[in-house]
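Notebook B, p. 112. Complex prediction, attempt 2.
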Amino acid sequence: MKKQKFRFLSFLLIAFMFLLAACSGGGSESTSGGDSGESDSGGGEGTVNIGYTGPLSGPAALYGERTLNGVKMAAEEINEEGGIDIDGKKYKVNIVSLDDKYLPNEAGSNAKRLIQENDTPIIFTPHSGGIFALQVFNQVDNFLIGAYSSEPKITEAGNTLTVRIPPRYDGYLAPFTKYQMERFGKKIAFLPTASQYGKDWAEALEPYWEEQGGEIVYNSSIDFTKDTDFFTIITNALKENPDVLFVGGASEPTAKVVKQARELGFEGGFIIMDQAKLDEMKRVTGSYEMLEGSIGVMPLVDSDEAAVPDYVKKYNEKYGEDPGSEAGLNYIGMWAFAKAMEAANSVDDPAKIRDHMQDGLDNIPDYARVYEIPSIGDDGGFESTLIVGAIEDGKVVPIPAE
Amino acid sequence: MDVLIQQLFNGLTLGSVYSLVALGLTLVYGILHIPNFAHGALYMVGGYITLTMMTQAGLNYWIAIVVSCVVVGGLAVLMERLVFHPLRHAPAIHDKIAAIGIMLFLEALVQFVWGADYQTMTSPYGQVVNFAGVTLTMQRLLIIVATVVVMALLYFFLKKTFTGATIIAMSQNREGANLVGINTNRVAMLTFLISGALAAIAVSLAAPINLVFPGMGHLVLTKAFVIIILGGMGSIPGAIMGGYILGFTESLGATYISNDYKDLIAFVLLVLILTIKPNGLFPAKGGH
């Protein structure tokens, strides 16, 4: 008798556990109801799922959150306007996000899951490793990659279903080099982050700097995941008397590198890799004074696009901070995809959506144009105008890129 | 020459932080007989507590450190009571799994409460001091001096007081200590309290030169593991010496050999020392 009771109880427990698992949906989150591509017919309403895989936990979680915020905010605005209009039928956008911990393999399996469970025609991912992993099978499994990485290789591979949202980083080499050589001098020390991205950047900058008659006096990298203090490496770099330091990585640790270099008496300029943002670095250093002579990506808040002030205000109300380019570019990227779907008259044919990306870019409403992106190249990269900013006398000054 | 002195100073700063973290780890090793993987998480929580006390409660830097010591020490005691004490008769692997579990839990909790972003702790000692061609900042001097003071106090406590002696007795032999009438429960809690407080002091001193973020515990924990192996598991002088050795190796190795290989140099040194002295520099006396 007792045994039977125990059995019954354990059965109940197991059943309850299954119920819980089913309810939690395995960690994916939905902003609105409906789970399959466009199966719900009639009534003139449908839902289109857009996938996202990025780092939502671990050291890069903040970066992941910011990129996701951009996509989500655009989706909410699209839905407020009634959704995506396909032949009079309105499709609501539903963002399904999964955490890949910044790992390419996790990004790959997340993407598989998103296609199988949610029928997502587009998957956003904000890191080059994840993009490369997705490119292995996206043309077979038929989905578009919303690639947020300035790595040139992702569009050089000839993948027809990849859309690169930010500008290629090699566009920055010329304006950065020219500015620093003219203002400070030709000797540079390399201290970028030790990530793959940092190394690729350094490898691109190295030949260019030398071609322009410059000299690289120190070449190393800083591992932000392992080093507690940067004094040692900066002392070694400054020993060679560089005029310019090349630094980069996440904004906050990069700002610490700049601060410690100043403490050690460095008076030259900084070339700041596009991953770090001047306005985010200012929050760590306290003012732009310490960043004097830095050149980097123009902060979104200082941009003179007409749509920016309202966008910054809205973003602040929602997420309590100023948006950077991570949020801004993914925001405009999501808008471009939605408008391309309307132009292609389809929410489930990735090739057709890709063909109409140009129309998508043209049809973005004025209030969402936080960046000027006139066209998309044949390789699938957005051809936006580079906006470069430098710190002069404690202020961000736009520098013409061409 | 200037570079050498500057790098010796940099190594000393780094070594001080490493030593403080390794000390807490080595003390608890005496009780658990495994490295406490959650120690890095305690370090991180300490950083957030000090930061919050300074920014939200507006407390003075030093008072914030005291509060942080109490909170993190309390957390460590709680950890011992709720997790490690019930596991004291279980195989060592259970302790290891539990410690990793606590680490993951604390990291997720901190990210939930404070968010994933990097935060800056501004200490009142940001001034730069130039002395004979060497650049010091007040905060770095503070790290070096405070570490020596804390070490001296700890050494005095362990060697010269009765309570301290019970901690050493227990790390040497738990049953033996129990037999001579030492309240092992109390001593275990006390050890965890001290270890937590040491982590809080270390992070409060070191955080102003870096940043406060959920992954910060990993920066020092892996180094601290190397140190306690190098110095001898459970050995107090070993943790201190090991910390400074690692700090100097990193700064001098990066200067005179290669920055890219500085971690490699530290590990080659570890291999060499363990080849000559397999139990570390100062093997702890006792049953384990």
